[in-house]
Amino acid sequence: MDEDLFVLVVLYAKAGRESELRDKLRAVVEPSRRDTGNLRYELFVQQDDPRRFVFVEHWDSPGAQEVHHTQTEHIRRFQEEGSDAVERIEVSYRMKRLD
């Protein structure tokens, strides 16, 4: 049986493109929350740096997150149309909770 998966991703926008990236990232939030196996999908922006965006995700299994990331239309669209505004991915962690 798969265990829950937690994901933390920090993206940094290209200079002058933070509003564009914010809009593109916001567009994936609601559809992602409806993806099978999603338990939490939140987007944050750093208060003192509007170029830094943070996703906090919780999935019921690694497989559900994999389908979300590789097979959904909203993520495919972001990869094709929005990822150009990303300067870098600062952090990408796939984690399991230690109880």
Q: Could you explain how this protein is built, in words?
A:
- With 99 residues, the protein is of the alpha+beta class.
- The protein has one domain (5-95): Alpha-Beta Plaits.
- The protein has helices at 18-33, 62-71, 73-81, and strands spanning 5-13, 38-46, 49-59, 86-95.
- Strands 2-3-1-4 form a four-stranded antiparallel sheet.
- Helix 1 packs antiparallel against helix 3.
- The longest helix has 16 residues, at 18-33.
- It is globular, with a radius of gyration of 13 Å.
Largest sheet: 4 strands, antiparallel
Radius of gyration: 13 Å
CATH class: Alpha Beta
Uncertain residue ranges: none
Work out the strand percent: 35-45%
Helical percent range? 25-40%
Overall geometry comes to globular
Mean pLDDT across residues: 95
CATH architecture: 2-Layer Sandwich
- Cα end-to-end separation: 17 Å
Backbone structural class: alpha+beta
Number of strands: 4
Counted by DSSP, the helix tally is 3
Order of helices and strands: EHEEHHE
CATH-defined fold name: Alpha-Beta Plaits
Number of domains: 1
Strand order of the largest sheet: 2-3-1-4
Secondary-structure topology with pairs:
Elements: E1 5-13, H1 18-33, E2 38-46, E3 49-59, H2 62-71, H3 73-81, E4 86-95
Antiparallel strand pairs: 1-3, 1-4, 2-3
Helix pairs in contact: 1-3
Keywords: Monooxygenase, Oxidoreductase, Plasmid
Protein name: Antibiotic biosynthesis monooxygenase
GO molecular function, one term: monooxygenase activity
Summarize the structure.
The protein is an alpha+beta fold and 99 residues long.
